[in-house]
Structure formats: structure tokens, C-alpha cells
Design a protein that fits this description.
By secondary structure, this protein is an alpha+beta fold. It has two domains: 114 residues, Homing Intron 3 (I-Ppo) Encoded Endonuclease, Chain A, CATH 3.90.75; 42 residues, no CATH class. Helices cover 37% and strands 24% of the residues. The strands form five sheets. It has a three-stranded antiparallel β-sheet. A hairpin with a 2-residue loop joins strand 5 and strand 6.
Length: 158
């Protein structure tokens, strides 16, 4: 099972030499089809440390399942979810093909296909809010932001 193998690899990858321990570097939610990366992210893409360098989580997971990605090739998410690390949702393309795919799918497709907020809460049921501009919001995160704003206002910071 790929999920079990990845869990083992996550633990093996991030050894804390100061304490002689290892610990997971990121977590997967296997829900439906996408595997959402819940570790560190940059611009929506999961990333992790391998030694002293940062690597993209989806690229690393892909290489664990299918092997090395050739020089000059890029990973393209066919699910349009940057946080997805499911290797079956990634195809290897040239830069030119990648740009063409992105144009064809459009940024709206990426947003529309997101099922979770950046903190991992679902965009569904009572947790889904739509703002005045039509943007989907996570009710839980919105309430958290409102509470923080109110607390700052009460303290006189705002």
C-alpha cells in the first residue's frame, strides 16, 4: 500500500539528530481522490526539507512511487489542487506543456476544485460561507479571524 510506504518514508526522512529521534514531517488526508498535504506549504504547494534543501512534497512523493523525474521536466497536477500529493494525480510534462495545461484549466478551475481551506477544514455543509464577492470561506477560520480582530479591538490595538 502506497500510503503505508509513504508514512514510513515520512518518518525516516526527518531524523532529528540532536535527540536521536524521528518524527513525521507532514500528514496526508486520504479523502476521495486528493491527498492533501498538511505540512509546510509555499504558494499552495507542500514542501519538506531533505537535508539542507527544500523539496516540493508532490514531486518527492511522485519519485517515491515512480522513480526519478528527468531534468527539464515538471510535475503537473491534473486535479488542479496544488496541495495534493497523490502521485496518480501528477503527470510529467515539459515547461511548454505545463503552461498550455494551466491555461486550458484556468485559475478558476483550481479554486473550484478545492474541497478544503488552507488549514484543512472542509468547504461544505455548515462550514461553508460565501462572501459578498462570491468567494468561498471556511466558517471556522472566518470565526477565528473575527475573534482575533475583536480581541485586538477590545484591547485598543485597532
Amino acid at each position: 500500500q502506497i500510503v503505508d510506504r509513504l508514512s514510513e518514508l515520512f518518518v525516516q526522512t526527518n531524523k532529528d539528530t540532536r535527540y536521536g529521534e524521528s518524527h513525521p514531517i507532514g500528514y496526508l488526508i486520504v479523502e476521495g481522490k486528493c491527498w492533501e498535504w498538511l505540512g509546510s506549504k509555499g504558494r499552495g504547494y507542500g514542501h519538506l526539507s531533505k537535508g539542507r534543501r527544500q523539496v516540493q512534497a508532490h514531486r518527492w512523493v511522485y519519485e517515491q512511487k515512480f522513480g526519478f523525474i528527468a531534468e527539464g521536466k515538471e510535475c503537473h497536477h491534473i486535479c488542479a489542487n496544488r496541495g495534493c500529493v497523490n502521485p496518480d494525480h501528477i503527470i510529467i510534462v515539459t515547461r511548454k506543456e505545463h503552461i498550455a495545461q494551466d491555461r486550458k484549466m484556468g485559475y478558476a478551475a483550481y479554486r473550484r476544485n478545492k474541497t478544503r481551506c488552507p488549514r484543512g477544514h472542509p468547504y461544505s455543509g455548515t462550514n461553508l460561507c460565501i462572501d459578498s464577492r462570491g468567494k468561498r470561506l471556511c466558517r471556522e477560520c472566518k470565526q477565528r479571524t473575527n475573534r482575533r480582530w475583536y480581541a485586538r479591538r477590545v484591547r485598543g490595538v485597532i
